[in-house]
Design brief:
It comes from Penaeus vannamei (Whiteleg shrimp). Helix content is 39%, strand content 20%. The chain is α/β, with parallel strands linked by helices. It starts with a helix and ends with a helix.
Length: 418
Amino acid sequence: MKSLKLQVLWVLLLNSLIGGAPYDRYKVLRVGFPRRADDGERLQRLVAETAGAEVWRRSVEGAQEVWEVLVPPSGGSRFASDLSQGHYSLSVKIEDVQKLLDEQESERVALRRHRTSSAFSHSNYNDLQDIYGILDKLESENPLVSTYVAGTSLEGRLIRVAQVSVGGDRTRQVVWIDCGIHAREWISPATCQWVLDQLTSGYNADPAITELLDAYDFHILPVVNPDGYAFSWEEDRLWRKNRHPYNETCVGVDLNRNFDSHFGGIGSSNIHCLPIYHGEMAFSELETQAVRDSLTSLKGRLKAYFALHSFSQKWMFPYGYNFEKPENYDELLRVASIGAEALFAVNGTEYSVGSQAITIYPNAGTAVDWVYDSLGVSYTYIIELPDKGDYGFLLPPSFIVPVGQETWAGIMAAIKAM
């Protein structure tokens, strides 16, 4: 056992030294197996012992559990060998991660040459500076929009929230939507921008949006994790956590394991280098403090909370920290199902619906559970945006518009059903 611990620690050190890019000849493998604890533990052990490997996605598909795993060139043969023994099925989802990264970077550069002068550009992903430029333009030109600073990150970046309101002296109920808590999930901030665009352009033009804004104020936080998001643009496209340094080799906290909801429990880790490191204590991070304080200031007005993530195509609700059903499970399921059906009607994109622990995997310390338990918000949802692994976190810009269209249709239908 001692030798295994030393081996795992050595692998973690190698992982941190390898860092991010380049991802030459890294693959993303799809591993399927029957839902049995020993098979999952065996695969998790293999990932932990392979320098540079990381679980990108876990999902339940019928009687099968499916994992998508990022595997370095040095680990491919071992994965193939070890998983040939047992009940595993193995296929390649992404043949060469770096090749895909290079292709998408070339596409982004080409698209930026043809940007429009309008506030929003949904043909391409926007970096943090561009996103905040959009907020500035909206605030100066649209009377419905005001922005406020929820907090400041460790590296000094502002955590900005856009409020869309037609008035009411801040007495209306609030719908909160946040995006970008995990840096590499670029489709999430892009979808928050789509929602902002629809709200600000649709009032008095679209009856459904007008009805929503006559009833609710919307608070949109497009990038919860500005340091991590900037790092994913400048250094490592696949970076997940924030940028809190703990030692010379391990950086970052998984912000969606840092909320005071069974903190330190299942689905999180106290090992600094791991992608799901939960931090030193609940709300240890400036980003989660900013979300906590902003939401707490709205307590009593919060009608609904939505957190947009990627990837998996799942519409989920509490709980993540255990398999128990929340008190209003049937109502949460009813509203989520209506949202998923409206989403499907746009482009035919299918979403699974259910509680986090059952629908994707158990995870403690998440925002959605904290909002539900601590603030008493009856409608709290985490939406895992497309896809199901063909591109994973590297969803091309051509998906921004269809994902935005269908997600907004689903959210509107869900709010109307509450």
